[in-house]
Fold this protein.
Amino acid sequence: MCGIVGYIGDHQAGPVLVQSLEKLEYRGYDSAGVCTNDGQKLIVEKEKGKLKELKKATDDGKKVQGTVGIGHTRWATHGEPSKINAHPHLSSSGSFAVVHNGIIENYMELKHELSANGISFHSSTDTEVIAQLLEYHYNGDLVDTVIKIMPLLKGSYALGIMYREAPDKIIAVRKGSPLIIGIGENENYLASDVPAILDKTRKIYRLAANEIAVIKRDSITVYDTDKNVVEKSAETIEWSMDAAEKDGYEHFMLKEIMEQPKAVYNTIIERIKDGRVVLDEIHLTAEQIKSFEKINIVACGSAYHVGVVAKYIFEKILRKPVEVNVASEFKYSDPIVDEKTLTIVISQSGETADTKEAMYEAQRKGSYTIAVVNVVGSAIAVEANDVIYTLAGPEIAVATTKAYSAQLAVIYMLAIYFGDILGKINQEDYRNYVSELLALPEKIKLILNKAEDIKNTASKLFARKDVFFIGRNIDYALSLEGSLKLKEISYIHSEAYAAGELKHGTISLIEKGTLVIALTTYEDLHEKTCSNIKEVQSRGAYVLGIGCENMQLLVRSADSTILIPKTCDIMLPSLAVVPMQILAYYIARFKGCEIDTPRNLAKSVTVE
Ligand code: G6P
C-alpha cells in the first residue's frame, strides 16, 4: 500500500527521501515521487513504475534542492498508475504539496465544488482535492487551515503537507492510516512505517487519529483538533536493523519462512510458565469467559485463514459455536453479535481498514474484542479491549508466512487457556498440548531442513496452469492458505476446496495434468481424503500429497508426497503450512516472479 516519508534537517532532503522510500518498497506500489522546498518554490519529481525510475530521473535524489521534503510510493486506487497521478500533488498555484495514504470518499463532491469556484484539476486522484482545499481555505495559519479542512474530508487519510512559504516545516496529520515521526538531532523524519527511518533514528512518536504535527528541524509540536498541544511520549523501536534487512537471503519471503521457528518460539515462550498457559494480557474474568455463548472471528486474507483454522480448534475443544467472518463483509451484514459474543480480531499489521471497521462494529454491538496483532501500537492493538501480540518481528514480504505461524500459536494458547477455564480439557490433554506447543519450533525446523527437496518438487511443477488444494476439516482450513500463498506470488490460478465437495461441480475442471495438492494430516479423515485423491487421479490429475510421516496409505495413493512430523491434531496446521509456503516460494522463483512485492498487492491495506 502507499508509503509516506518526510525529512527536515541540515542535509539535502532528496537523497534521504529516496533512501527512505526504498525501505518502504515492500509495501507494494506502482509509482513514486518527492517534493522539496528550495526556499523559493516547491520542486516536484515523480515517475511511474519502480523507484529506480525516480532515482534515475533525480540522480538518486541529488537533483532536487532543499533540506526539507516529502516523498511517496503510490498504490493506485483512484486513477491509473501514471506520472500525473503519482504523489506529491500540488495545488493550482503550486503553493501546497500533499502526499496521502488512504481514500477520500467524497472527493468527487469536493472536486465538483472546487471546480465550480474556478479551480482546475490535473490528475484523476482523490488526493489532489486536498492540496486544492488547503490553498482555497488558507487563512495565514497552517495548523488552523488543516483543522478547518479536516471535517470536509470523509474517509481515511495520513497526510504529509508542505507549504511554499514555510520552508521550515512539514505538517503531518492522520485519520485512519498510520503515521510516525522519527526524532533526530537537528533533523526529524516523517514516515508511514518504521522501516523507512530505522537506519536514521529509533526514537519515534506515533501520531494518533485526528492529531496534527508541525515538524521542524529542531522541534515537533503535536496538536489536537481544538489546537491544544498534545504531550506525546516517545517510543524506542527495539528491532535490530537485521530484522528489516534480507540478511543474505535472496528474498524477504524466504528469510521469513526460515524465521518461523523463532517467531513461534518468541510468541509462546513467555506465555508458558510452569507448564501452564498464562495470558496476562487478557483482562476477562473466568465468569465473563464462561458467559460467552459464541465466538466471532474477523480478519482478512491470511489472517482470515488463521480464523478458519481457529474455528475447527475452538469448536473441537470449547464446544462453543464459532463464526469466522471476512472483515469487509462483516460490518455491512448487520451481524448478530452482542455482549454474549467474544470477538477475536486477527491482523498482522493492526491497520487493515476492513478489519478495523469490523472490530468497531463488533464493539458497537457490545462484543468484547481480543486482538491478535503483530505491530505494536497499531490502531487495532490500541483500540481492542485486549491485545495479544504475536512476536514474529517485522514482516516485510507481502505474502505473510511467519506472522501466520505466530497467529496460529496464539490461537492454540487461547484454545488451551479458555478450554481449561471452561473445564473442557483434562489434565493429561493439557500437559500434552503444552508439550506439543513447546516442541513446535523444533518440528518446524525439521521441515525447513527439507527445503531443497521441496525446491526440487517445485522445479517439476512450476509450469502448471491450474492447481486445486483439497483437504477435510482442519486440512481444508489449511488448504485455503496454501492456495492463497501459491496464487499471490506465482500468479498460477489456484483454488482451495473441501475434499468432499470437489465432486459436486468443480471436479469437471480436472483434466490430464491438473495439479491437485491434497492435504491429509488429520488422521481421522485420512482414508476419506485418499478416496478423493483416487477420484481426481482417475480423471487425469497429478496429486502431490502432504501428510504425516506415518501415513502409508497417502504414500501409496498420491503421485508424490511431502511428509511432516506428527503432532497433536490441533497443531498440525503449523507444520503442514511450511511445505506449502516453501513450494509456493520456489514455484514463484522458477517462474521468475517478483516474490516480495507481487503485482497489484499491498502488505497492509488501509482502505476499505
Ligand atoms: C493484505 C495482505 C495479506 C494479509 C491481509 C490482512 O491483503 O496482502 O497478506 O493477509 O492484507 O492483513 P493484516 O495486516 O490485517 O493481517
Summary: The chain has three domains: 3-238, 244-444, 450-594.
